[in-house]
Write a structure and sequence with these properties.
By secondary structure, the chain is mostly beta strands. The chain has two domains: 2-192, Porin; 198-207 and 258-345, PDZ domain (Pdz3 Domain, Roll), CATH 2.30.42. Helices cover 9% and strands 49% of the residues. The chain has an eight-stranded antiparallel β-barrel with strand order 1-2-3-4-5-6-7-8. The longest helix has 18 residues, at 2-19. The two termini are 62 Å apart.
């Protein structure tokens, strides 16, 4: 049973990590664990307190913004169980597997996150009996506790915890009382997925003009984003039959609102955000930004991993970019990167 659970959790971690590249947030943890195992007095054991060392591993899959489903396994062992040493000395051990919900304080934009969880499962202990021989006993396990993560890189961090209070009911059938012990773990955490889900893009095309022009409409011509006046759909031209053809009006460069700065390579108008990036004010229909599902209100914070703090810095970083370029954006409390394809200058 122990090997089956270990293989199941390993499959969950590998599958979750692979699927999470384009799916929900998946956190994987592994590290050292300490367990204070209190063996109760019963008809087959004396009261003892063992301090066991081992491992703890867990995987969580994000279900909502702060809630995740967690799977946890841990294993601990003591070589000189009961103070007996030498060849053939008994070994006490404990193995548990539990599942339950986790609530995380913070999100992928936070350097430090904290969590609390509640887990339920099974605990298998190898205990020392009255005859100095060990025997196995399986019981219900319930754990509750908290932990802290420090993310020193986008996908890698250090985790302190979980620090859990562990309840088990070993040897109840032999007259023992239920046990309340504790365990502490520390190790490395890895994070996958959790990108901003795609949404219907919001562009200036969705806005209703204050005064509609009955005879003309505005057409965007890529890649230079120029506008020309043309007859509206369904309207007839008023040019006389015998009148000489008139030359088409020259194309005009789209006007830039005074409250923002146009970044033509992306097809956006942006404004400063207190030296914290460039806030998207407008998105040109058919532009690179629209194809990348950028939204009005998004905060552009980096280009190919380099932080940009103002629209001028954004324009400077994009001035020599061509081809695939990574744009870091923040939407509300979510932070992610999207890859765009820029036309050569």
């Amino acid at each position: 049973m122990k090997k089956f659970v270990q293989l199941a959790l390993l499959a969950l971690i590998v599958t979750g990590a692979a699927a999470a590249q384009k799916g929900p947030a998946v956190d994987v943890f592994g590290g050292y664990s300490y367990l204070n195992l209190r063996v109760p007095e019963s008809g087959v054991t004396t009261a003892q307190n063992f301090k066991l060392n081992g491992f703890d591993a867990s995987a969580t899959i994000g279900l909502f913004r702060h809630f995740s489903a967690e799977a946890d396994i841990s294993g601990h062992e003591l070589g000189d169980c009961g103070g007996i040493t030498g060849l053939g000395a008994p070994k006490c051990s404990d193995f548990s597997y539990m599942f339950g919900p986790r609530y995380t304080f913070g999100d992928h934009s936070s350097r430090i996150t904290a969590f609390v969880h509640g887990l339920v499962g099974r605990d298998q202990a190898n205990l020392l009996g009255l005859n100095s021989l060990t025997f196995n006993d399986t019981a219900t396990a319930v754990a509750g506790g908290a932990g802290l993560d420090y993310w020193f890189a986008r996908h890698v961090g250090v985790q302190l915890g979980p620090i859990d209070v562990l309840y088990t009911n070993h040897l109840n059938a032999d007259g023992a009382s239920s046990q309340t012990t504790y365990r502490v773990a520390v190790g490395v955490a890895f994070r996958f997925g959790g990108n901003i889900p795609p949404a219907q893009p919001t562009t200036t095309a969705n806005k209703q003009p204050a005064e509609a022009k009955p005879k003309t409409h505005r057409s965007w011509i890529r890649p230079w984003h120029k506008t020309v006046e043309a007859p509206a759909e369904g309207e007839e031209t008023t040019t006389a039959t015998n009148a000489p053809p008139t030359a088409a009006p020259p194309a005009r460069v789209a006007s830039v609102p005074s409250r923002g700065m146009a970044i033509h390579s992306l097809g956006v108008v942006v404004a400063p955000q207190e030296f914290d990036g460039a806030r998207v004010l407008e998105i040109e229909p058919g532009s690179v930004a629209e194809m990348a599902s950028l939204h009005i209100g998004d905060l552009i914070k980096s280009v190919d991993g380099k932080v940009v703090r103002t629209p001028m810095e954004l324009a400077a970083e994009l001035s020599e970019k061509a081809g695939k370029t990574r744009i870091g954006i923040q939407r509300g409390s979510f932070v992610t990167e999207t890859t765009v394809l820029l036309a050569p200058h």
